[in-house]
Design goal:
Layout (H helix, E strand, L loop, with lengths): L5 H5 L18 E2 L2 E4 L2 E4 L4 E11 L5 E10 L3 H15 L5 H4 L2 H17 L1 H12 L3 H28 L4 E3 L2 E9 L2 E5 L7 H12 L3 E5 L12 H7 L5 E3 L4 H10 L5 E5 L2 H10 L7 E5 L4 E5 L5 H13 L9 E7 L3 H14 L1 E2 L7 E3 L7 H14 L3 E2 L9 E2 L2 E2 L2 E4 L6 H4 L6 E7 L3 H9 L2 E2 L1 E5 L3 H11 L5 E4 L15 E2 L2 E2 L4 H7 L1 E9 L2 H12 L13
Parallel strand pairs: 1-5, 8-9, 8-11, 9-10, 11-12, 13-14, 13-23, 14-21, 15-16, 20-21, 23-24
Antiparallel strand pairs: 2-3, 4-5, 6-7, 7-27, 12-26, 17-20, 18-19, 22-25
Bound molecules: glyceraldehyde-3-phosphate.
């Protein structure tokens, strides 16, 4: 598509001195540190230079991406040392951390959280510069993560207290508790670099596992302010960083056979290949949040205003860069024209700008190759008979990292946008007459994360719920797809996920049952009483946590 909007979009990138004081980086952050085995080590090797997706104008009006800093491009050698440190800290479950009482582990995590909160403004600033998330959303991501940690601490106390009881059954007396798996490799995504990384790292940690932690490719430097907090809050070797290119470090870790759990929020292709590298497939546990192509199904009786409002939040929050985003809209043919008109009116009202622009909805895209990919999707859709409904208002125009949201209609099964997870501000709309069209789409999709249904017809909704409940992890009624609230199960079917995350269930994903059992006899009862009253064992105990 011819881009007539260059000039307008160019104006969105400001001169450096127009960046508000509170968000301006004092200086680039050249990270020279790796956290391995409780030590912050100086890195003297090659580095990856981090440029922001946000461009700033120089005096001559030319745009340059802001230099955010650089981080170590560590190698297999450092990955090996980190792995050895994590394995030694776990020490087959006898290490200080896995053997520590839950109460003491909570104290360490609380200490870490206090230190983390003291770094809020630095971290939020780096979220903004590294991935161009709007300032309010970056703050929300930070606060949500702190709430997640607090929620995890409450959940772990509840889990601990509910496993104090002894069960007496068929002449046996036993106590079941949750114990750690071992070494956990945690890798989060760029779109929620802090939040989604910590939704696996924190539960894995508090359950007594030791951690290898690889920050996402975009959104790496924001963890730098936390390295000393990790070092000072946990015993040595419990949290170790893996910096550098994934291909230089992660295959080695997986091939070592010493990773007990892989926790990855990312692509199913990567997860698939990493799992295959592990030599002991039965030993490896996986906690995965992967690809999704969540559909909205808007029925003929739907409240169009509500459906439009939720579709915009679902497709365009953080520019559509959410795993839970609505990535295709099926709209009943009898209302699709009205729906499209209202959708275009509302999309065209959205503010495009910098993360600090008041009321901003659309910000620069974090992945440098994305504007070209989205253009390819639009070209492909147009070649197969679709139009960009809001082209007059700039829909589909792009310049540097800015991409104006495009509504594409009518989308059909010949188009890339029908199948591929666009992960960006492109809204494919598919008209349908028979409900079987969206139902078959969901059934035949390789993904199965969530779906949204918009209708007020209890019969039609029930029919769809019953057809789709075995296809996706969550069905949203008259609401966009989303992960939150974090107390709700977050999972997916098919290639979308493995395991369930929620504040409570993540604790179960990163632990395994340990049963201590004996035959019920006066002698064995006496032994149990001696152990419990003398507080002789950490594992076999009845310490209630408040
Ligand atoms: O990318 C997925 C995130 O978990 C988004 O969370 O759906 O609650 O906004 P959310």
């Amino acid at each position: 598509m011819e881009n007539n909007w260059h000039e307008t979009l160019d104006q969105l990138f400001p001169a450096e001195d127009l960046v508000p004081e509170n968000i301006r980086l004092a200086a680039p952050i050249h990270q020279k540190n790796l956290l391995i085995n409780g030590e912050i080590r100086e890195w003297k090797g090659p580095v990856h230079t981090v440029y922001s997706p946000i461009y700033l104008k120089d005096k001559s009006g030319e745009n340059h991406p802001l230099l955010v800093g650089s981080y170590p491009l560590a190698t297999e050698n450092e990955a090996r040392e980190a792995l050895e440190a994590a394995s030694a800290a776990y020490d087959s479950g006898r290490g200080t951390w896995p053997a520590m009482s839950v109460h003491e582990r909570i104290k360490c995590l609380e200490h870490f959280t206090e230190r983390m909160i003291s770094k809020k403004s630095e971290i939020v600033q780096l979220i903004v510069w590294e991935i161009s998330k709007s300032l309010p959303d970056a703050e929300k991501e930070f606060d949500r993560t702190v709430e997640y940690i607090h929620g995890t601490i409450s959940a772990v106390k509840k889990l601990n207290n509910s496993s104090m009881l002894f069960t007496i059954e068929q002449g046996f007396i036993g106590q079941t508790k949750k114990v750690p798996h071992g070494v956990v490799l945690c890798m989060g995504p760029f779109n929620y670099p802090l939040n989604e990384t910590f939704t696996t790292l924190i539960p894995a940690l508090i359950m007594g596992n030791t951690i290898l932690f690889k920050p996402p490719k975009h959104g790496t430097l924001l963890f730098e302010p936390l390295l000393s907090a990790f070092r000072d809050s946990f015993p040595k070797g419990v949290v170790n960083t893996i910096y550098g290119r994934g291909r230089d470090t992660v295959p080695f870790l997986m091939q070592s056979g010493k990773v007990d759990v892989i926790a990855l929020i990312g692509s199913s292709k990567v997860a698939d290949s990493l799992k295959k590298m592990h030599p002991k497939s039965n030993r490896l546990k996986s906690v995965l949040g992967l690809d999704a192509k969540n559909a909205a199904i808007v029925l003929e009786d739907a409240d169009i205003e509500l459906a439009v409002k939720e579709s915009i939040a679902g497709t365009l929050s953080f520019n559509g860069q959410r795993c839970t985003a609505l990535k295709i809209l099926f709209v009943h043919s009898s209302i699709v024209n009205k729906f499209n008109q209202r959708l275009a009116e509302e999309v065209n009202k959205l503010t495009t700008g910098m993360p600090w622009t008041k009321g901003v909805a659309i910000t620069p895209l974090a992945e440098p190759d994305k504007p070209v990919y989205h253009q390819e999707c639009l070209d492909d859709a147009v070649a197969h008979g679709a139009r960009i409904l809001n082209a007059d208002a700039g829909g589909g125009s792009h310049y540097l990292s800015i991409f104006k949201p495009a509504i594409v209609f009518p989308v059909n099964d010949q188009m890339k946008l029908y199948r591929e997870e666009q992960f960006g501000p492109v809204i494919p709309v598919v008209p349908f007459i028979s409900l079987e069209t969206p139902v078959e789409y969901v059934i035949n999709s390789p993904y199965g994360q969530q779906v949204s249904i918009f209708s007020n017809d209890a019969n039609a909704i029930s029919l769809l719920i019953d057809k789709l409940a075995n296809q996706v992890g969550r069905i949203n009624l008259n609401a966009q797809c989303q992960r939150s609230p974090d107390t709700f199960p977050f999972n997916g079917r098919k290639d979308s996920a493995e395991g369930t995350l929620s504040i409570d269930e993540a604790l179960l994903a990163f632990s395994v049952d340990s049963v201590v059992v004996t035959k019920q006899s006066p002698q064995n009862q006496q032994i149990l009483e001696n152990i419990l009253s003398g507080k002789k064992s950490t594992r076999l105990s009845t310490n209630i946590l408040f």
